[in-house]
Design goal:
Layout: E1 15-18, E2 32-38, H1 56-78, E3 81-87, E4 98-104, H2 110-116, H3 120-131, E5 141-145, H4 150-163, H5 170-176, E6 184-190, H6 196-209
Antiparallel strand pairs: 1-6, 2-5, 2-6, 3-4
Length: about 220
């Protein structure tokens, strides 16, 4: 994935590595902050490859994969459950009825259905546009590398995905929802800071982004 606009301040040192390319050696062995994006909205992830002949059957298969992965991604968001209680605020607390509530996010299917209903050429155009919006989306995980390097952390998450060493780890949770390691794109900002600065930056970024598979 090509880094566009690298002259913008703050992006010149950023590292973007698709896990499908298996180029983990391109990740620097330095501390820093990193994020994972799920990239299922691309020709590659849908089994479509540039430069070859794409048949109607290929498009149909791609649409089925898109529908399945969209459902998997939205299932991640449904994992966030909101619990609490409400009461009648116009009555004294000792006599006001109160109710326990449990909420989860709901979605409409219309945007996905519209993509699936497109003609073959329109669908391919839409997929290409969606792929270009990756960094406009929210990452699913944000972390820091202090005692380890950015490359070490990526290797650890990959090992967790394939070996399931920790059921609460990012890799294991990602696998639980049916995603592949190759669906990920690793984005990092290397840093010369080793101490509390990175920890506080991580907290701030977690607050700003609230990643779906973030810290539990």
């Amino acid at each position: 994935m090509e880094m566009v606009g690298s002259q913008v301040q703050g992006f010149s040192n950023s590292v973007i590595v698709p896990m499908a390319a298996c180029d983990i050696e391109d990740i620097p062995s330095v501390p820093g902050i990193y994020a994972y994006y799920i990239s299922f909205l691309s020709r590659r992830s849908l089994g479509l490859f540039r430069g070859g002949n794409i048949s109607e059957q290929d498009i149909l298969s791609a649409k089925l994969i898109l529908a399945r992965k969209f459902k998997q991604f939205l299932a991640l968001r449904k994992e966030r459950r909101y619990e609490g209680s409400v009461r009648d605020a116009q009555r004294y607390s000792h006599i006001a009825p109160s109710y326990s509530i449990r909420l989860e996010e709901d979605f409409v299917a219309a945007p996905v259905d519209a993509l699936l209903a497109m003609s073959d050429s329109s669908f391919l155009n839409a997929v290409d546009i969606l792929e270009s919006t990756l960094l406009l989306q929210s990452p699913v995980y944000v972390g820091i590398a202090i005692e380890q390097t950015l490359q070490d952390r990526c290797l650890q998450h990959r090992s967790d995905f394939y070996n399931g060493s920790s059921s609460s780890g990012f890799g294991s949770r990602l696998k639980k929802f049916g995603f592949e390691w190759t669906d990920l794109v690793f984005v990092a900002s290397p840093s010369r800071a080793y101490g509390n600065e990175l920890r506080e930056v991580e907290k701030a970024v977690q607050l700003l982004i609230n990643p779906i598979l973030g810290l539990r």
